[in-house]
Write a structure and sequence with these properties.
This protein is α+β, with helices and mostly antiparallel strands. The protein has a single domain, classed as Transferase(Phosphotransferase), domain 1, CATH 1.10.510. Helix content is 34%, strand content 22%. It has a five-stranded antiparallel beta sheet, covered by helices on one side. A three-stranded antiparallel beta sheet has the order 6-7-8. Strands 9-10 form a two-stranded antiparallel ribbon. The radius of gyration is 18 Å and the shape is globular.
C-alpha cells in the first residue's frame, strides 16, 4: 500500500514485513524537469537522483560503522538493501511507527495539528545530540524529514525517538561538509535553528538543545 512520497521517491508498506517500508525511485518527469541543469545532466549522462541516493547510502554506512564502534547511536532509519518490485528496484528501510504500529508522523505533520509535548521535546534533543556526536551530514535537514515514533525492529517496547528518514548525505557539488566537521556543525546549527523557528521553539548553539520559547 502506498503511504506517501517525497521529491524523488514513493514510499510503500512492505508486503511481508510490518516493520519495514519500501522506497521506489520516481521516474523523471520530462515536463517539469526540463530546465537547463536537467538537460545538461542528460547530456553528461549524469543521474542527479541516483547520485543523491548514492550519497545517502554512503552517509548511512558511515554513521552505522561509527555506531558499531561505540561512537554513538544512529539517528537515521536503518537500511536493508535493495529488492526487486513490479515498479523497479526498491530500497527496503526501517519503519518508524507510532505506539499502535501506524507510520510515524513527521514534525511538520505533528505541528499541523498541535505543538510538541515535553516527551517529544526530549526525544528531539536526544536526536540533536546524536546528530553532532556522529557528525551526520544532512543536506535536507527539515521538519518534514524527521519523524517522531518508535523503532520496533530490535525492541518490542521501544522509547519514543526522533529519527531522520530522508535528506541525509552530503549532496552538494562541492562536499565541504564532508571535508570539515566544523563546517558541517555550522550547517546543522542553521538547519536546527530553522526547525526551531518552524516549531515555535528556541535552539541554543552552546548547549545544543531545543527549549520552549519564552513568552
Amino acid at each position: 500500500m502506498r503511504i506517501g512520497e517525497g521529491g524523488k521517491r514513493v514510499v510503500y508498506e512492505h508486503p511481508d514485513d510490518p516493520l519495514k517500508l519500501i522506497k521506489v525511485t520516481k521516474p523523471r518527469d520530462p515536463v517539469t524537469e526540463n530546465g537547463f541543469l536537467d538537460r545538461l545532466a542528460d547530456a553528461l549522462d549524469f543521474d542527479t537522483r541516483q547520485r543523491a541516493i548514492s550519497k545517502e547510502i554512503k552517509e548511512y554506512e558511515r554513521v552505522v560503522a561509527l555506531e558499531r564502534r561505540g561512537f554513538g547511536v544512529s539517528p537515521i532509519a536503518h537500511m536493508y538493501g535493495y529488492a526487486a518490485t513490479d515498479r523497479g528496484p526498491a530500497l527496503v528501510v526501517e519503519k518508524i511507527a507510532s505506539h499502535d504500529g501506524k507510520i510515524a508522523q513527521s514534525l511538520r505533520q505533528i505541528l499541523s495539528k498541535r505543538t510538541l509535548d515535553l516527551n517529544e521535546l526530549k526525544a528531539l534533543n536526544i536526536f540533536a545530540k546524536k546528530l553532532f556526536e556522529l557528525d551526520v551530514k544532512a543536506s535536507d535537514l527539515t521538519a518534514a524529514n524527521i519523524v517522531l515514533g518508535h523503532r520496533f525492529t530490535d525492541n518490542p517496547n521501544p522509547t519514543l525517538e526522533a529519527v531522520l528518514v530522508d535528506g541525509y548525505g552530503d549532496t552538494h557539488l562541492i562536499p565541504v561538509r564532508s571535508w570539515s566537521r566544523r563546517l558541517n556543525a555550522l550547517s546543522n546549527h542553521r538547519r536546527l535553528h530553522r526547525i526551531a523557528q518552524f516549531l515555535g521553539l528556541q535552539w541554543n548553539e552552546q548547549t545544543r538543545l531545543f527549549s520552549l520559547s519564552q513568552g
